[in-house]
């Protein structure tokens, strides 16, 4: 493998976006690829490093999406690349349940060590967050011998049939794809920006509503699991009020229900803790991880109390590619990077810069209704000025402006009016501030 010159960590526009080469490739994509796949930015990427993506026309784009919170350690992180190269030269596949290898075991050992709680834990590995969620539900049902699953408004858990049933938002995730799996019960989710009641009592108010609905409409004794994102991702980076998650966890424990933290988007240093549920000292029975686990390679995991994980019969869990040796090598490189480069602390620093800049923008532009998030996972919700009415048109205009200037940012939200910021945690202060400067220009241009 020949070494390449480092990719400059600076924004640079060689052409308009999309440039002529990207336009040609977009036309080829249209002919060859299903129209059901979206495209956030009209630029074909040929190289990525750190927090910069370079397209085929030579434009260097600041990446504030990290592949939807995947490359937390940056694109082409050296420890990830080196371990992957060594692994792919050794062997590419055996299927762990056919002929095992150490990489799978080492990733499970790392997950058992890093996830919250000092109790005995065990893990299994899959390919994607949705597959991990499917396995988490399967294991919880097998362990408890109960059918019902509790989920929440604004939740996103994946695009398979079961995980679509768990996911709240219809368009684009569920429209026309039903019927969906049954025994899924959706509960109200505290969303402070749209709450008209007393914010001081919101956590307890919602706990009372949710637990009452579970007891009266489902029967707590029928519930296998409660699954929730510690911060809602696709739903718009909704941060639950303090006490809500801990109250749910206690209710689950009291009723023999498996409490599952879906940390697919919030995990691996993203929020300023290794896992978001650590913010309140919550120890879930089971935790689902993916995205940031392997620096860009497909890997996911379920980690839970050993007795829950061991309740399944031999052969009941598995999958051909789950825990592929190349992805395991990448995960070990990503985890090493997070720990050696202190990315948990770095995420808190990035969060401070983001929050201060976005809060200043909100004071200047009344269409920014709320700034929220934690660590390197922040968002702004756009509204009609002076109201809480969603403003998706303003969001679209801001996104388009930023893209044209070489800054990739992502959308989110049940009401399609949230801009989310998920930069690689290795992004420099200078690069982040440059991107935020472009964002301010976007609002000024409205």
From TrEMBL:
GO terms for molecular function: (S)-3-amino-2-methylpropionate transaminase activity; 4-aminobutyrate:2-oxoglutarate transaminase activity; identical protein binding; pyridoxal phosphate binding. Belongs to the class-III pyridoxal-phosphate-dependent aminotransferase family. Pathway: Amino-acid degradation; 4-aminobutanoate degradation. InterPro entries: 4NH2But_aminotransferase_bac, Aminotrans_3, Aminotrans_3_PPA_site, Class-III_PLP-dep_AT, PyrdxlP-dep_Trfase, PyrdxlP-dep_Trfase_major, PyrdxlP-dep_Trfase_small. It catalyses: 4-aminobutanoate + 2-oxoglutarate = succinate semialdehyde + L-glutamate; (S)-3-amino-2-methylpropanoate + 2-oxoglutarate = 2-methyl-3-oxopropanoate + L-glutamate. GO terms for biological process: gamma-aminobutyric acid metabolic process. Its cofactor is pyridoxal 5'-phosphate. Its EC number is 2.6.1.19, 2.6.1.22. Gene3D superfamilies: Aspartate Aminotransferase, domain 1, Type I PLP-dependent aspartate aminotransferase-like (Major domain). It is an enzyme of class 2 (transferase). It comes from the Bacteria. This is (S)-3-amino-2-methylpropionate transaminase. Signal peptide: none annotated. Keywords: Aminotransferase, Pyridoxal phosphate, Transferase.
């Amino acid at each position: 493998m020949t070494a390449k010159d480092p990719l400059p960590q600076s924004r640079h526009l060689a052409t308009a976006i999309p440039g002529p080469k990207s336009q040609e490739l977009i036309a080829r994509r249209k002919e060859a690829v299903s129209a059901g796949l979206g495209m956030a930015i009209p630029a074909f990427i040929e190289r990525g490093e750190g927090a910069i993506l370079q397209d085929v026309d030579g434009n260097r784009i600041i990446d504030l999406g990290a592949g939807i919170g995947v490359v937390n350690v940056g694109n082409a992180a050296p420890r990830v690349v080196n371990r992957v190269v060594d692994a792919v030269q050794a062997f590419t596949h055996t299927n762990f349940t056919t002929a095992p290898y150490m990489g799978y075991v080492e990733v499970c050992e790392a997950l058992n060590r890093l996830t919250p709680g000092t109790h005995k834990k065990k893990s299994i590995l899959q390919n994607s967050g949705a597959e991990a969620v499917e396995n988490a539900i399967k294991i919880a049902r097998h362990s408890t011998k109960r059918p019902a699953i509790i989920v929440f408004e604004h939740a996103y858990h994946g695009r398979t049939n079961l995980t679509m049933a768990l996911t709240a938002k219809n368009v684009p995730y569920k429209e026309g794809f039903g019927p969906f799996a049954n025994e899924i019960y959706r509960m109200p989710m505290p969303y402070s920006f749209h709450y008209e009641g007393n914010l001081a009592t919101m956590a307890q108010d919602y706990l009372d509503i949710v637990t009452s609905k579970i007891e009266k409409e489902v029967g707590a004794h029928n519930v296998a699991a409660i699954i929730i994102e510690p911060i809602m991702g696709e739903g718009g980076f909704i941060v639950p009020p303090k006490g809500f998650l801990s109250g749910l966890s206690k209710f689950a424990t009291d009723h023999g229900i498996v409490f599952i933290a879906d940390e697919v988007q919030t995990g691996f240093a993203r929020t300023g803790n290794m896992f978001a549920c650590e913010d309140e000292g919550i120890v879930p029975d089971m935790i689902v991880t993916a995205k940031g686990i392997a620096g860009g390679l497909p890997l996911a995991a379920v980690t839970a109390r050993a007795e829950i994980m061991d309740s399944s019969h031999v052969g009941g869990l598995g999958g051909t590619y789950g825990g592929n040796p190349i992805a395991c090598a990448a995960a070990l490189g990503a985890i090493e990077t997070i720990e050696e480069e202190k990315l948990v602390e770095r995420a808190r620093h990035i969060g401070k810069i983001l929050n201060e800049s976005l809060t200043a923008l909100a004071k200047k532009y009344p269409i920014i209704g709320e700034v929220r998030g934690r660590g390197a996972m922040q968002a702004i919700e756009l509204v009609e000025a002076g109201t809480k009415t969603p403003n998706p048109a303003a969001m679209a205009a801001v996104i388009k402006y930023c893209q044209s200037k070489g800054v990739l940012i992502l959308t989110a939200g049940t009401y399609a009016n949230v801009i989310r910021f998920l930069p690689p945690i290795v992004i420099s202060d200078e690069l982040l501030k440059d991107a935020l400067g472009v964002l301010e220009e976007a609002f000024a241009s409205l």
